[in-house]
Each structure stands twice: as structure tokens, then as C-alpha cells.
Amino acid sequence: MSKPRLLFVCLGNICRSPLAEAAFRKHAADAGLDAEADSAGTAAYHVGKSPDPRSVREAAKNGIDIARYSARQIDEDDFFRFTHIFALDQSNLHDLRAMQPVNSTAELALLLDTLPHKLGVSVVDPYYGDEEGFAETWQDVSEAGLAIVTQLSAPIG
Ligand code: 4NP
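The joint structure predicted for all components is written out below.
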């Protein structure tokens, strides 16, 4: 199987998807899984910006430096460059489905659908809330990141 290439997508690419990318990278490294990861936003509001300082602090608490991540907007090429695209919430999943090219090769899914007890659940947008919301975001994306790594590491058959 070719190397998995995963893209995590939220709205602004400054709060949730950078944390999802970081959590996945951490779990993949811990498991010795060779995979690529990136993140993007469906919106262009924050293109070129660093992650929200609250996301940077939350990642740092978990031992990961995301200060140098830079926000970008998803584009059509991403549906061919990545093997899996995970939407952080239902609204972004809807927007991704609307822009997905008919011959797209990426598998598109809701991030928390990787967790049997969170099927259909969106990762709550912490942008307008307090720091506590970012800890909750981390819990969600870390749990999902571990589930994805476990799934991708499972022997076939
Ligand atoms: P994100 O959070 O989608 O998790 O990066 C947001 C960031 C910015 C905005 C909304 C959500 N905004 O409206 O600017």
C-alpha cells in the first residue's frame, strides 16, 4: 500500500485542524507509522497566519510545537494529493462534498466518524470560546488521531 497522506480540514485552519494534524503526527510517530499529514481550511480568512495562540499553547502542553504551521485554503488538487481528507465538522464536510471533483481519489470523511461512540459528531469550534474549549478540542482530535493510526497500522486481512 502507498504511504497514507492525510489532510485535516476545518474552517479557518488556525484552531482545530492544526491540532488534529499535530495529534495525528504525534500518534503516528509513537506508533512508528510512516504517513504524511497536513491541514487546511475551507475558508481563506486566515491564509498565511500562524495557528491561534490558544491552539499553540494547547499543542505545547501536549509536547508539540505548532507555532510554525501556516494556514492555507484547501484546493482541488488536495483531492488527488491526499489519500484521506477528514472534515472537523459537518458544515465543513458539506462544503468539501460540494467542491470534491467527481474523479477525486481521496476518501472524504467526518473526523469523529473514526470513533464508534462519536458517529456524526462535529468537533466544536473553540474560536469564540475560552481556553477550556481548546483542551476539549485536543481531547477529540487526539482520540481520533489514535484511532486513525490504529486503523492504518492494522495488518490487512
Ligand atoms: P477553525 O476556527 O475553523 O477551527 O480554525 C475558526 C477560526 C476562525 C474563524 C472561525 C473558526 N473565523 O471566523 O475567523
